[in-house]
């Protein structure tokens, strides 16, 4: 078990590494796991540990929408974590990602389940735009960043090759399962869901919150896709869906 609250202990686990990759973080808070500790403080500890072992480079996986001034607590925490990496003095690569799809990912499981459900529904009808990224493409970007270890701190947004509404992604996946599919995606009211999520998450001390709903339903928009700079050939969305369904 790796502890993210003790730089000395983490440094022992990382001893001998010249490049440190930090992917850990949370989207859904629990009673004992909050954005501040899991996304910001943990990143600070990783940076401190990387310095202790004399690492030459750090790769930090962030999220599209990260912003230290965001009104959304999740996006704000990821933006603050990015700032810690950028100010660390280490050479660093920051990669902001959208929803990740691939065998075994949470996004893929939810997508496949919805595509197989004749009564599929999505928040707001699923009309928010996504740029799904194949998990293997992210892995390639991380590998290349570790290999190159470019000087300074560079930030990239790495998204998939196709912009698509979530409802259309569900229907596209359904047609991969059954070419004759005429699946339509129903709507779950966002306002009411946020109201109920606010009540239940307050009572439980975490879980599915209005903050999470805002993250899920935000359009994944980027001004520039950094796949070329990261040395990645993007996997087509069709192929990514096929890989998910093959498993």
From TrEMBL:
It comes from OM182 bacterium BACL3 MAG-120920-bin41. This is NAD(P)-binding domain-containing protein. Residues 5-105 form the NAD(P)-binding domain. One of its GO terms (molecular function) is protein-containing complex binding.
